[in-house]
Design brief:
This protein has 347 residues and is mainly alpha-helical. The protein has 14 helices and no strands. α3 packs antiparallel against α11.
Length: 347
């Protein structure tokens, strides 16, 4: 291939990535406006924009700025964090099935938060909640990588993640059984399903610093991901400290996922789905996947949160339930695809 052909190919790829980023940004903005307008009181996008900037009636301003805006901010931030952390873990392990939910990070974070809530160490608006969630999320990912090893295959990763998730789930159930307050147990049960309903700016201020810190840490490792895609030995020869990279990804994931779970409960599979949706459009470079995966994760969670408000039901459907219903079939499809790829490689 000539140099001119290489330049033309690179230019086409750059234009496509730019177009995808612009389309994603427009989609997220539209979903934000729809999220701010959907509810018992329907508002048009123009009314939403007017209320955001101090126009419209006092009632519209309260609905948009005080009730719906915190929920929408959290939907964007949590979805973006889950999408970015999924892309980062897939880049770190060079495995397309890696994601925070499969590694037990959200379940472990939920366990840490449940301990705080159940035993009355702090209320649901205390900063002790995200701190406990972050510590347990960090521990789960660290333990999984320690158990599975550096070059773990697909089966080992899935089994180790399943074991950690099961242990975290059992520990959470035990804490709920030991709690003497039935109202607290009921509150925890609904919280674990994952929801953005009735969130305030107090929740935003509690989660956002940790989510931003986690995203910054993951973004700072983007060049190391690109080198790691060539193999650990090659990455080390290029000056990448693989141990430091692994610790950075664990810390960034724990900060972001822990902060998210502390205010939303467990919302699964967005970190798995978002990078896969972007890979055919952006390419397989993990460094270039981080931001598109974050925008895709934000769009997915915003869309899911809009959907639970539109689906007719006698009670509120939890957004974590909807993402799991969509995510599990997608996960099974990926497993089947990996199995066919392995079978083809063996043949």
């Amino acid at each position: 291939m000539s140099v001119q052909n290489v330049l033309v190919t690179a230019d086409i790829a750059l234009r496509r990535r730019t177009s995808v980023m612009v389309a994603l940004s427009v989609l997220v903005v539209l979903l934000v406006l729809i999220s701010l307008g959907i509810g018992s009181v329907r508002l048009s996008p123009f009314a939403v924009i007017d209320a955001l900037f101090g126009g419209g009636s006092d009632v519209q301003q309260v609905i948009v700025r005080e009730i719906r805006l915190p929920r929408t901010i959290l939907g964007f931030a949590i979805g973006a964090m889950l999408g970015m952390s999924g892309a980062a873990l897939q880049g770190l392990l060079r495995n397309p099935l890696a994601s925070p939910s499969l590694f037990g990070a959200p379940q472990s974070a939920a366990f840490g938060a449940v301990v705080i809530i159940a035993f009355g160490f702090a209320d649901v608006r205390s900063y002790a909640l995200p701190v406990a969630a972050i510590i347990t999320a960090f521990a789960s990912v660290f333990v999984l990588l320690a158990i599975a090893g550096r070059n773990a295959g697909l089966l080992i990763l899935i089994l180790a993640g399943l074991a950690i998730s099961s242990l975290a789930g059992a520990a959470t159930a035990l804490v709920m059984n030991l709690s003497s307050n039935p109202f607290v147990v009921l509150e925890i049960a609904f919280w674990l399903l994952g929801s953005l309903e009735d969130r305030s700016f107090r929740h935003v201020m509690m989660a956002l610093p940790f989510i931003v810190a986690g995203a910054v840490i993951l973004w700072s490792q983007r060049n190391a991901f690109r080198a790691l895609s060539l193999g650990e030995e090659t990455a080390q020869s290029l000056g990448v400290d693989v141990g430091r990279l692994r610790l950075g990804v664990i810390l960034g994931t724990a900060l972001g996922v822990g902060g998210a779970v502390a205010v939303s409960g467990t919302i699964g599979f967005i970190g798995l789905v978002a990078p896969h949706l972007m890979r055919p459009l952006i390419g397989h470079d993990p460094a270039r996947l981080l931001v598109p995966s974050a925008l895709t994760g934000a769009a997915l969670l915003l869309a899911a949160d809009i959907a639970v408000r539109l689906i007719p039901s006698t009670s509120d459907i939890k957004v974590g339930v909807l993402t799991s219903i969509i995510g599990v079939p997608f996960f099974l499809y990926l497993i089947m695809r990996e199995r066919r790829a392995l079978a083809g490689g063996v043949a």
